[in-house]
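Notes from hallway chat w/ T.B., transcribed later so I don't forget. T.B. wanted the structure written out for a chain they're using in a teaching module, and asked if we could keep both sequence and C-alpha cells in one place. Agreed to drop them here.
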Amino acid sequence: MEQIEELKAKTHLLELLNRVFEGEKFIITKDGIPVAVISPYRKRNKLASSETIQKLKEFRKNKKLGELELKDLLETGRD
C-alpha cells in the first residue's frame, strides 16, 4: 500500500480518488506517521436474510463438540 504525505494527498485528492475508484488503497501520513487509510468503499449487508438464518438454524441442530452442543456454545458468553 502506497504511503502519501497529507499535503500531497490534499493537493492531489481528485487523482487519488480516481485511483481508489480503480481499487487502489493508500495510507495517508502526517510527518511520516500513518494517520488514515483511504480505500474503496464496500457496501456490506449487515443483516442476514431470513433464509440464511433458517439455514444456520438447521445446520446447528444436533451438532456436538464432545458432550457440548453447538447451540450451547453459541449461548456461552451472552449472559
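Follow-up for T.B.: The beta strands are 2-5, 26-30, 33-38, 64-65, 68-69. Might be a good example for the class.
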